[in-house]
Write a sequence for this structure.
């Protein structure tokens, strides 16, 4: 058997220590296999561009799973088909490294079809070498997505049938229609002329990465004498005569010249700046904004707020919780969440207490705020005897039936409309709640508003709504 | 530091950033999406990288790549996404790569629903991927812990060169509570096994392939020694009222919050009920359960699932009656419901055993 030697290059190890074979100077590839030639071209280019010492090579799953035996670079072995995602991770971590994803056709075009398209589409600044040998070599000659029509393999024993398996997939064409990639070429390891073209393509693809231009992919039609059950000479001929007929050679895309080099390294943020950047307030800020009200008595309010999605139920709850926290209480806020809120019902559970809060769920409420009829129907039975029920008397067309609770009807909607926006009915509710119960001071609420309301233009309106809610309660007390 | 009212899903990201995490790879899924959204907002501001991956498979493999580069990297999802990440988790364990993975559990199987659930216990704690591996699993039950455990998770991941999971349910992710941020600043040290795009890299290999059975066996034994060490050094739990308890409740996530209220109520009514909350689900607090079992106490495991953690309780409480009460589909038991279950068990009126 002819020995497969890769020859000398600073991008190859002199001795393949990781190769378990007794002869540590030959590769594990079969005679006549294309992988060895492609390895040589890659190593040569890495050496010539002087980047082998900052290169990280990703070995796929397939016959080239052991590429790390040979390349004297940083090596990562990846799960089947996932190399482009792994490449994304390591390249983003070390943008100055040269990252090469080396993949077979089962790996790249089959199981890893999504990973390659998405990495290409993100325009990752990596180089992909795609060995298309029309077969699964490593597992013993099964069909690949690139297997030719009629080609027999161990899983297409009667030949690839377009009605069962479809046509072979053309990766170079697919990748080249994406906007982001810089360079896509298909080459063939067949006759000398094309082999030399392959060599140039490998160099160009690596150079574009060195210049930080972005994503390149070279599809390499490559003989697999073993998988095809041919001798190396016939295998080369088969590449020329059969594969090249269907897989056209050539440059499918090359916009390297027009593309600007990308900026690689972002600014490093000093660690002591981080808390401020991620909105963790410093202790000084705490002194200004926290309004503590100390009280020795046990304080526990379990509040259920319910209504339609869009009534600002969740924000009402958040404002309450924020205010409670500012007054030094323990608080929890638990929403009904997810798409169910859109248009449907929404509710949230808020607990404000000076004790440690166990369950954040309000099964039984000390205060129920019912913003619509279904909410009142649903939660009235779960109000603690002696507790409070606030309801929107504009839209809830019945009074609470329980006579062991205190029911307070407030025309939230009407009052909000009077101020100029139905939207602020939640703030009207909040105002009436705190006025009636005295559980929080209005100043705390106003301050809490500035923290939780994202759109600052609403602050003034909200404040007016809170006050209007308070005034309504005052008017009840007077009458 | 001052307290901030935050969602669990936000706190876990801020904790991670304080822990030095600068790489986040995610994919949207309710009820975990705020994690990716918060990361997308803050991580680039601190000089890091956020990528919305093509899938959870893409995300976990990006984590694999970034972690190979020695940086602190993270991903988050919920049940269906975690199912897809299992391949990557197995590879991460095989290649001994540290990272943090958050699972905000939702109802399953299949698409299930987005309500809180704990049915991922088996896939996360027992290892849903292939091979003889384990991951360390932390189970926060408050927003404060979401922050603290993100930090702890990165420490443990690096200590053991192994993925660490932060496992909780939709309610703990969605809930808001005040968080007090610890004053930590982590400069992630250079790791001698990681790749940095420099000449020295050629002496290193990130891989999980070992063709020789003896060699692979040796590696698997080596990584399993780490798991043994975790069992010796990392067991964490919270407990109260154990001493004179006749029945010890075992729970995690939002259930443990509900039970903490229920146990208080039981005690007030004179029922001898104890409270045990495993904080590490792997390593599971075997010893304490064993000891309590030897003392003749019974157990009640309450879960939002068909009974998964209860198997671990039973395994370590051979002398005891081990009861199980579970709700599924996104339903969460009320305090009254659990109180009633406990009283019935104590009065011998009913045994709640895992069915099936
Ligand atoms: C998830 C998974 N599925 C299947 C395999 C088995 N497998 C190993 S190599 C291979 C085919 C690789 O073929 P290709 O990418 O064409 O590379 P070649 O061997 O031809 O160079 C397969 C299916 C695996 N390792 N992992
Ligand atoms: S099976 Fe084919 S691809 Fe694999 S080493 Fe042999 S010739 Fe090369």
């Amino acid at each position: 058997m002819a020995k497969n030697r890769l020859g000398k290059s600073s991008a190859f190890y002199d001795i393949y220590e990781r190769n378990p074979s007794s002869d540590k100077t030959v590769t594990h590839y079969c005679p006549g296999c294309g992988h060895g030639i492609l390895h040589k071209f890659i190593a040569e280019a890495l050496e010539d561009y002087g980047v082998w010492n900052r290169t990280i090579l990703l070995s796929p799953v397939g016959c080239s799973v052991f590429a790390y035996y040979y390349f004297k670079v940083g090596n990562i072995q990846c799960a089947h088909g996932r190399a482009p995602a792994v490449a994304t991770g390591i390249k983003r971590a070390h943008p100055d490294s040269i990252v090469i994803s080396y993949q077979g056709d089962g790996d790249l075009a089959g199981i890893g079809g999504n990973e390659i398209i998405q990495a290409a589409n993100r325009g990752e600044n990596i180089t992909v070498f795609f060995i298309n040998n029309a077969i699964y070599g490593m597992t013993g000659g099964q069909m690949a997505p690139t297997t030719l029509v009629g080609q027999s393999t161990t899983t297409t024993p009667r030949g690839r049938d377009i009605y069962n398996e479809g046509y072979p997939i053309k990766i170079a064409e697919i990748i080249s229609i994406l906007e982001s990639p810089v360079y896509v070429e298909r080459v063939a390891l067949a006759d000398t002329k094309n082999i030399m073209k392959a060599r140039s393509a490998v160099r160009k693809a690596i150079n574009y990465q060195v210049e930080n231009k972005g994503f390149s992919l070279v599809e390499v039609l490559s003989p697999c004498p073993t998988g095809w059950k041919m001798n190396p000479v016939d295998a080369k001929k088969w590449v020329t005569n059969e594969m090249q007929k269907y897989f056209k050679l050539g440059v499918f895309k090359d916009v390297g010249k027009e593309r600007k080099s990308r900026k690689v390294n972002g600014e490093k943020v000093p660690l002591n700046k981080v808390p401020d950047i991620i909105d963790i307030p410093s202790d000084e800020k705490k002194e200004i904004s926290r309004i503590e009200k100390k009280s020795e008595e046990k304080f526990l309010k379990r509040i259920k707020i319910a209504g339609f999605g869009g009534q600002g139920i969740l924000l009402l709850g958040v404002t309450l919780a924020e205010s409670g926290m500012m007054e030094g209480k323990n608080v929890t806020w638990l929403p009904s969440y997810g798409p169910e809120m859109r248009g449907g019902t929404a509710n949230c559970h808020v607990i404000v207490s000076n004790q440690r809060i166990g369950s954040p769920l309000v099964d039984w409420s000390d205060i129920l705020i019912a913003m619509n009829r279904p909410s009142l129907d649903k939660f009235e039975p779960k109000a603690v005897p002696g507790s409070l029920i606030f309801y929107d008397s504009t839209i809830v067309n019945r009074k609470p039936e329980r006579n062991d609770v205190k029911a307070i009807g407030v025309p939230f909607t009407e009052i909000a409309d009077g101020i100029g926006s139905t939207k602020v009915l939640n703030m009207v509710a909040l105002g009436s709640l705190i006025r009636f119960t005295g559980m929080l001071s209005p100043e705390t609420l106003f301050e809490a508003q500035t923290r939780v309301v994202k759109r600052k233009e609403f602050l003034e309106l909200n404040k007016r709504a809170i006050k209007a809610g308070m005034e309504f309660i005052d008017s009840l007390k007077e009458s | 530091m001052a307290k901030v009212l935050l969602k669990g899903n936000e706190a876990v990201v801020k904790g991670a950033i304080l822990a030095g995490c600068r790489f986040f790879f995610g994919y949207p899924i309710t009820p975990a999406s705020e994690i990716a959204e918060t990361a997308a907002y803050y991580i680039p501001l601190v000089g890091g990288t956020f990528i919305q991956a093509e899938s959870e498979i893409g995300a976990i493999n990006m984590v694999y790549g970034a972690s190979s580069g020695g940086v602190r990297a993270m991903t988050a999802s919920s049940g269906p996404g975690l199912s897809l990440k299992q391949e990557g988790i197995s590879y991460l364990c095989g290649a001994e790569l540290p990272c943090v993975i958050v699972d905000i559990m939702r109802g399953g199987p299949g698409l299930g629903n987005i309500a809180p659930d704990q049915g991922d216990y088996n896939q996360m704690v027992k290892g849903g991927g292939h091979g003889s591996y384990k991951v360390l699993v932390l189970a926060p039950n408050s927003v404060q812990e979401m922050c603290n455990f993100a930090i702890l998770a990165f420490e443990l991941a690096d200590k053991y060169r192994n993925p660490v999971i932060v496992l909780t349910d939709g309610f703990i992710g969605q809930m808001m509570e005040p968080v007090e941020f610890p004053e930590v600043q982590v400069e992630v040290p250079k790791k001698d096994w990681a790749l940095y795009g420099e000449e020295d890299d050629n002496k290193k290999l990130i891989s999980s392939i070992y063709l020789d059975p003896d060699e692979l066996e040796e590696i698997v034994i080596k990584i399993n020694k780490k798991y043994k060490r975790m069992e010796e050094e990392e067991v964490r739990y919270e407990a109260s009222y154990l001493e004179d308890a006749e029945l010890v409740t075992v729970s995690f996530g939002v259930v443990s919050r509900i039970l903490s209220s229920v146990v208080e109520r039981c005690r007030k009514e004179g029922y001898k009920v104890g409270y045990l909350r495993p904080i590490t689900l792997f390593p599971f607090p075997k010893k304490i359960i064993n000891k309590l079992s030897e003392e003749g106490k019974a157990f009640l495991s309450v879960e939002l699932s068909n009974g998964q953690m209860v198997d671990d309780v039973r395994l370590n409480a051979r002398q005891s009656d081990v009861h199980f009460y579970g709700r599924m589909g996104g339903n969460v038991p009320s305090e009254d419901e659990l109180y009633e279950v406990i009283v019935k068990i104590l009065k011998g009126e009913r045994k709640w055993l895992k069915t099936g």
About this structure: The pocket of iron/sulfur cluster (ligand 2) is lined by residues A 29-30, 33, 35, 63, 133, 137, 224-227 (CB under 6 Å).
